[in-house]
Amino acid sequence: MRSKTAIEIYAYWDALRGHRDVPSRSQIEPGQIRNILSDLFILEKTPRGDIRFRLAGTRICSLFARELRGSTFDALWLASQTGRLARIADNVMTEKTPVVLSASSLAGTADRLPTEIILLPLRSPDGVVDRIIGALVPHSRPLWLEATPVNYLDLDGIRVLDIEKTNLFMQSRPEKPLPAPRQHAGHSTMGDQGIAGAIRRVLHLRVFEGGRND
User: With 0-12 CB in 10 A as exposed, 13-18 as middle and 19+ as buried, what is 194?
Assistant: First the structure.
């Protein structure tokens, strides 16, 4: 991991996890991660199997110049990569395995912007692992970023984190291939209004009401 945000949310997730494989969503206390909330998002697996944004922080929405809530996670990526990204996110939940994605943000004719995304599985109150908390952070903030929205992400690399060793070698884990996806049943309809509300209260989220849908 290269970004401080990814390291911080991983450390928080790992502390909540303790000796279990995955922490519960209800354990998340937004006030404890308030300094990085604008770079965080939560994904959920819907009854149809889509993986959609339950909520996304202000800086992520600003990056794409639209509200991401309700959009599919794979819609952020190049069309040729959408199937792969859907499988990666599904694997994070079914395998209960954190993943770090290296990507490039593409915005018109602007230079490719190196970006890091971390995906961490979460367990719903009913016991099903059908949520992901993650962060999406460009490695720099060029001037054009304030005026030009990112159109797509281009996947550059995948790193599967070994949760038994990552805390010791957080910044030097090698990249590994993802395991094959498994069939997964069940989902939760529990809301994230608590954390969403907290994000709004803490950071005064800028909401793009009526924004473009994917």
Answer: middle
